[in-house]
Specification:
InterPro entries: ACT-like_dom_sf, ACT_dom, ASB_dom_sf, D-2-hydroxyacid_DH, D-isomer_2_OHA_DH_cat_dom, D-isomer_DH_CS, D-isomer_DH_CS1, D-isomer_DH_NAD-bd. Belongs to the D-isomer specific 2-hydroxyacid dehydrogenase family. Keywords: Amino-acid biosynthesis, NAD, Oxidoreductase, Serine biosynthesis. By secondary structure, the chain is of the alpha/beta class. The protein folds into 4 domains: about 1-95 and about 285-300, NAD(P)-binding Rossmann-like Domain (Rossmann fold); about 95-275, 3-Layer(aba) Sandwich (Rossmann fold), CATH 3.40.50.720; about 315-440, 2-Layer Sandwich (60s Ribosomal Protein L30, Chain: A); about 450-525, ACT domain (Alpha-Beta Plaits, 2-Layer Sandwich). It has 16 helices and 22 strands. The strands form 4 sheets. Strands 8-7-6-9-10-11-12 form a 7-stranded parallel β-sheet, sandwiched between helices. A 6-stranded mixed β-sheet has the order 14-13-15-16-17-18, covered by helices on one side. It has a 5-stranded parallel β-sheet with strand order 2-1-3-4-5. Strand 4, helix 4 and strand 5 form a beta-alpha-beta unit. Helix 1 packs parallel to helix 11 (about 285-300), helix 5 (about 95-115) crosses helix 7 and helix 13 (about 360-375) crosses helix 14 (about 385-390). The structure holds nicotinamide-adenine-dinucleotide and D-malate. D-malate (MLT) binds near residues 72, 73, 96 and 280.
Length: about 525
């Protein structure tokens, strides 16, 4: 298995990958054309923030299974394209949070006490004590935008300096503050009341230019801005104008809309201090993210579970062992349903009943969709892209978790709504791992979803089963197991046979020639 590393990664992770038997190529500084031309040879690629994994590169990545980001931000990866191609994208959350928070502290303090400017003045042999009078942090208000791993570490540190902290994070609740003396507020309130504003949100379409002209205009006069999260969250042109017009006292930037940002007009402003994306550049953080990503890549490539994927629910080996019979049953149910379909699917309703609801049912749903879609599509479908492919094809999905146990302690029920009606199946596990289909449409059955399965709807009359088995016997087709079901005596019944060899279409026609046979179909799982 080949792994490509495109940026400087601490040696520990590289050694770890090699020790696990993976072939590792380190090629730092590739152009995107060069990366495109070699990517097809690799099953995994490890990047930091400088490598852009675009749709064009993903289109060429025919063997790629995992994109590993040694760090947090995945804004340099076309997530949609990766997901669509079934490629897992994973990062290493938390591995560099302390370093990024400490860097933010260095920026806040440097900004308050003009340290970089004073250092420059000193180097030109000046002693300008009056020019660099700063401000205390004590009793000032810091507004934190994005109170995740880095944001909350920054909060803890500035609280120790006696600052007041307000935060804006639409995805965090008061109870998650875990005793932190932080007041959650709206963005507008934060902008109006803060003396310092520090950004710690991810760059996504919703946060691109979250802070633009109108937000700068809401801020307190003399505010200082710190961005150690991602360039692009602040509109740099609007920041330039706000500083130039004296509305903003200064800014400390570690990240930029384009990196490196040497053409930015901000460089001419003395009150802006810059670092070249150094937030995570400590020995400790780099070692940690390098080992973390190596470990995750090894597990993913060796089928031992997926951690910290941003486009797939995480699962570990222990959970995988428990859940895999359900994953396998769901895929078989999907495959069986696909073969029973008569017209395009409009909606899939999946109901999970029982203790299985404690599992990560997202993986089971992904499997079911894989089984359902794979036979009808050219492309490779897996757990990562199944949902995206279904969505793209206009198939609606409803997942329902229920604790209303009826005949089975655990049960998966799937209903496919199509233009020509509904097709449904229910499946469960016998003795923890033996898969069984226990209902086809409204007929109760007991079918092993494996190999050649002959499904026949017939009139519930003497002779129907003899007619089918007689024709099969004539052709030497052996029946491994048989199940029958009906709703009422003398009505429509179902006969399901597991066969050692498939029934040819001409033989199916022969079986169907009898008026007591209503429908017959051969499926293979
Ligand atoms: P995180 O996922 O733990 O936290 C991000 C927080 O932002 C979350 O709590 C989320 O709810 C919040 N958020 C999402 N959308 C938001 C929005 N529209 N408005 C406000 N908040 C929003 O991530 P983290 O590890 O704390 O990293 C934070 C940022 O710092 C990321 O952009 C990451 O890439 C960056 N980072 C930079 C460096 C560096 O070298 N400069 C190092 C580490 C992390
Ligand atoms: C991150 O998102 O983790 C940072 O940008 C750190 C990095 O990649 O150097």
């Amino acid at each position: 298995m080949e792994v490509l590393i495109t940026e400087t990664l601490a040696e520990e992770g590289v050694r770890w990958l090699r020790k696990a038997g993976l072939a590792v190529d380190i090629k730092v500084g590739l152009s995107s054309g060069e990366l495109s031309s070699i990517i097809s040879s690799y099953e995994a690629v490890i990047i930091r923030s400088a490598t852009r994994i675009t749709r064009e590169i993903i289109d060429k990545a025919s063997s790629l299974k995992v994109i590993g980001r040694a760090g947090v931000g995945v804004d340099n990866v076309d997530l949609e394209a990766a997901t669509r191609r079934g490629i897992i994208v994973m990062n290493t959350p938390g591995g560099n949070a302390i370093s990024a928070a400490e860097h933010t502290m260095a920026m806040i303090l440097s900004l308050s006490r003009n340290i970089p400017q004073a250092n420059n003045s000193f180097r030109s042999r000046k002693w300008e004590r009056g020019r660099f009078v700063g401000t205390e942090l004590y009793e000032k208000t810091l507004g934190i935008i994005g109170l995740g791993r880095v944001g909350s570490e920054v909060a803890k540190r500035v609280l120790a300096f006696g600052m007041k902290v307000v935060a804006y994070d639409p995805f965090i609740s008061e109870e998650k503050l875990r005793g932190l003396k932080v007041k959650l507020t709206h963005l507008e309130d934060l902008l109006r009341c803060s003396d310092y504003i520090s950004i710690h949100a991810p760059l996504k379409s919703e946060t691109h230019h979250l802070i633009r002209e109108q937000e700068f205009r809401m801020m307190k006069k003399g505010v200082r801005i710190i961005n150690c999260a991602r360039g692009g969250i602040i509109d740099e042109d609007a920041l330039f104008r706000a500083i130039k017009e004296g509305r903003i006292q200064g800014a400390a930037l570690d990240v930029y809309e384009r990196e490196p940002p040497f053409d930015t007009a901000l460089i001419e402003l003395d009150s802006v201090i810059f670092t070249p994306h150094l937030g995570a550049s400590t020995r400790e953080a780099q070692t940690q993210v390098s080992i973390q990503i190596a470990d995750q890549i090894i597990d993913a490539l060796k089928g031992r579970g997926v951690r910290n994927a941003v486009n797939l629910p995480s699962f570990d080996l222990e959970m995988l062992e428990e859940i895999s019979p359900w994953i396998s049953l769901a895929e078989k149910m999907g495959s069986l349903l696909c073969q029973l379909l008569r017209s395009p699917i409009e909606k899939v309703n999946i109901t999970y009943v029982g203790e299985m609801n404690q599992y990560n049912i997202g993986l089971i749903t992904g499997s079911l969709l894989k089984g359902l879609l794979e036979p009808i599509l050219e492309e490779k479908i897996n757990h990562v892209n199944a949902l995206a492919v279904a969505k793209e094809r206009g198939i609606k999905l409803a997942e329902i978790k229920s604790d209303q146990i009826e005949d089975f302690a655990n049960l998966i029920t799937v209903e496919l709504l199509t233009a020509s009606g509904e097709v449904s199946l229910a499946g469960t596990l016998f003795s923890i791992k033996d898969p069984r289909i226990v209902r086809i449409d409204e007929y109760h059955v007991e079918v092993v979803p494996e190999g050649n399965i002959f499904i026949c709807f017939n009139e519930d009359r003497p002779g129907a089963i003899a007619h089918i088995t007689g024709i099969l016997a004539e052709k030497g087709i052996n029946i491994a197991s048989m199940g029958v079901g009906r709703k009422k005596i003398g009505g429509k019944a179902i006969t399901v046979l597991n066969l050692d060899t498939p029934v040819s279409s001409s033989l199916i026609e022969k079986i169907k020639a009898s008026p007591i046979i209503l429908e017959a179909k051969m499926v293979k799982i």
